[in-house]
Amino acid sequence: MSGFNRELIQIGRQLRKMSQTDLAERGGITQGFLSKIEQGVKEPDDDTIERLADALKLPKSFFVQSDRIYGLPVSVHPMFRKKSKVGVKTLDAVQAELNIRIMHLRRLIKAVDLDASFPLPEFDVDEYHGDPEEIASLVRRTWLIPRGPIANLTEYVEQAGVLVIENEFNGSDIDGVTLAVPGLPPCIFLNSERPADRRRFTLAHELGHLVMHRVPSATMEEEANAFASALLMPATDIGPQLKQVTLPKLASLKGVWKVSMAALLVRAKTLGKITGNQSAYLWRQMGPYRKREPAQLDFAPEKPTVFPELLRLHIDELGYSIEELAAILHVHESDMTQLYRMQEKTGLRLVKG
User: How much is the pTM?
Assistant: First the structure.
């Protein structure tokens, strides 16, 4: 098959959480032969590719795409708690899905010109005395953000030319992933299953990586958390409100600043508004809410608009049917529904033309 891309066999396997043994068995070939195909030692014929495509529930055209495959970045993390273990198969499936989404973006974005209203600044944290707070302040000034709570952080991030995309990360314990690949705007993928407060903090955290971290470092996660906290809760604005902190006060401030009670408590301690003993006492009181804060305090999540609009443009304005859109993206219709159902929830209708 002309143009066959062997790396996409492994991406297909990872997407479906199949081992080489699984795929070889379902595709009617030996694992040794499949291994040689994936390593580039053997070139499969059309019949073999068709059987593998059927086993993976992907069209044959999927395997002739020339796109480069990318690994996951260092900053794949849960927030505000000790990192949970994510299985290798799940991480592989997340990596496969994100690569497929990136391939789709390359095709969809050809139809539009994306203009940024604000620059996406880059600040070397070492040049600012290792102080993410100062950098967060510079970002707010660069984007002309008024003092106080940020009404809609997603809107600012999108206006700086970053694509914010929701997905479920295969049900894994991943909050967010940032991919900045050649030829595309930076992409921040957010876990749509997280509460709005955590999703918003994750967006600020991932923005911190884009702004401050060109290369990984041992302190990058702590720096990104500090950046996110300062961006969403500037010291001069929130400081006076964090005096005499109580749980009811944290609950009342949550809706104002659109951050979790936990984030507010951490900020109060960082700014010296409460002592270590007071912090420990409040954390004990927060015990029942450490995994999930009271539902009655929830607020509506910020919704990305640029990527849903990109899909809407192809369907409503360019006149693509769901079959045609699936064809140019080299997936079956079932995968279109699976990958982009979050956009369906926001009003985008993926219907047959």
Answer: 0.92
pLDDT digits (tens, 9 = 90+) for 214-255: 888 899 999 999 999 999 999 999 999 999 999 999 999 999
Distance from the Cα of residue 219 to its chain's centroid: 21
What is the DSSP secondary-structure string of 275-341?
-HHHHHHHHHHTGGGSSS--GGG--PPP---HHHHHHHIIIIIS---HHHHHHHHTS-HHHHHHHHH
CA 215 to chain centre: 19
Chain Cα centroid distance, residue 344: 18
Over residues 307-321, the pLDDT tens digits come to 999 999 999 999 999
Per the CB < 8 A criterion, the answer to whether 339 and 97 are in contact is yes
Q: What's the topology of domain 1-66?
A: 434 Repressor (Amino-terminal Domain) (1.10.260)
Domain boundaries, the chain: 1-66, 107-240, 306-345
Instruction: Give the model's pLDDT for residue 2.
Output: 72
- Residues constituting the chain: 353
C-alpha span between 142 and 159 (Å, rounded): 12
Q: Could you write out the three-class secondary structure of 17-65?
A: CCCHHHHHHHHCCCHHHHHHHHCCCCCCCHHHHHHHHHHHCCCHHHHHC
Pairwise CA distance, residues 326 & 305, whole Å: 21
Round to whole Å and give the CA distance between 154 and 164: 7
| Residue range 107-240 in CATH 1.10.10.2910 | yes
User: Which residue, among 137, 117, 323, 221, has the nearest Cα to 145 in the 3D structure?
Assistant: 137
Place of tokens 């510079």: 138
The string of pLDDT tens digits covering residues 57-85 is: 999 999 999 999 999 987 664 433 344 56
Helix (H, G, I), strand (E, B) or coil at 217: coil
Q: Which DSSP category does 2 fall into?
A: T
C-alpha distances (whole Å) from 160 to each of 91, 114, 116, 122 are 29, 10, 5, 12
